[in-house]
Amino acid sequence: MNVPRSVFEAAERVLTAASVDARIAETRLAVRGFLDGPPTDGADGGRPPAPITFVRFPDRPNLVDPRQLPRRNLQAASGRIALLHAVAHIEFTAVSLAWDLLYRFRGLPDPFYRDWLRVAGEEAEHFELIRRRLNALGAEYGDLPAHRGLWDVAADTAHDLAARLALVPRGMEARGLDVTPGLIARLAQVGDVESCEVLKVILRDEVGHVALGSRWFRWVCEQRGVAPEDEYRRQLRLHLRGELRGPYNLEARREAGFTDTELAELAAAAQRGAIDTGT
C-alpha cells in the first residue's frame, strides 16, 4: 500500500474505502506518513473537495432510523453487545468525520490539518478497542443495525467550517462527554470491567478532541470578527430542531474548552431539562 502524495489524497482514499478494514488501514498508513511529515499548506492542488455525497460507507451495518433501535438491557450479554456495537459505530463514523473535516476545508494553517489527522488516528484506535471487545463477546461490527445521525449532521454542515465545528465536535461529540460516564457506571454495575476500561480510554481522548473543536471554532470566529459564544448559539438555532437535552458533564466540557458563560447556560438547562434552541 503506497503512501498518498498529499493529505487530501489520503482523505479521498480513506473516505472512499469500501470496507471497514480498508478505512482503518488507510488511516493508519496516512497518520504514519503525514503526522510528522512536511507542513500541509492547505492548498487544494487545483481540485476543490468533492461533494460530501462522494463518501462511501460499508454495506454493513444496516443503517436505520434511531427509533428502530431496541432498548438495551445491560444485564444480558446481548444488551452489552448492542451497547458496544453502538459505540463502535460512533467511533467508526468519527474516523470519517475527522477525515472529512480536514479534507473539506482548505487554505487553513498547517496545525489544523495535523490536529485532525491525529484525531483520525485516535478515533481509529478507539474503534479497534471496541471492536476487539465485541469480538471477545462473540460479536462483530456490522452484526447489528445502526443509525447515521452523526453523519447527517456532517452533511448538514458541509458548507461552513464554523457550523461543522459547532455541531460536530462541540455538539454531537460533546454529548459523548455527557453520557459516557453514565454508561461506564451501568457497565460497572453488571461487572463488565473490560468494557468499562475501554470506555474510560475513549472518554479521556474525546475530551481532547472536543477541546480541538473549541480551539478551532474560536479561531474561525476570530477570523470572521464574530463573538464565539454568540456564534455558537446561532449555529445551534440554525441546525438543531427542538431542544438540546442533558445531562451535561460540565467538568469535562470545561476541560474541553467550553466557557464559563456556556457552562452556566448548560447548568441552567440541566435544571430545566433541556436547552431551548429557539426553533
List the topology elements.
Layout: H1 7-15, H2 20-34, H3 77-104, H4 110-136, H5 149-156, H6 161-189, H7 193-224, H8 228-239, E1 243-245, H9 250-255, H10 260-272, E2 274-276
Antiparallel strand pairs: 1-2
Helix pairs in contact: 1-2, 1-3, 2-4, 3-4, 4-7, 5-6, 6-7, 6-8
Please tell me about this protein's structure.
The chain is an all-alpha fold and 279 residues long. The protein has a single domain (7-37, 71-276), classed as Up-down Bundle (Ferritin). The chain is built from ten helices and two strands, in the order H-H-H-H-H-H-H-H-E-H-H-E. It has helices spanning 7-15, 20-34, 77-104, 110-136, 149-156, 161-189, 193-224, 228-239, 250-255, 260-272; strands at 243-245, 274-276. It is globular, with a radius of gyration of 19 Å. The relative contact order is 0.11.
Number of strands: 2
Q: At the third CATH level, what is the topology name?
A: Ferritin
Question: How many separate domains make up the residues?
Answer: 1
Helix count, DSSP H or I runs of 4 or more residues: 10
Query: Termini separation (Å)?
Result: 49 Å
Report mean pLDDT, rounded to a whole number.
90
Give the structure's gist in a few sentences.
The protein is an all-alpha fold and 279 residues long. The protein is built from 10 helices and 2 strands, in the order ααααααααβααβ. The chain has a single domain, classed as Ferritin (Up-down Bundle).
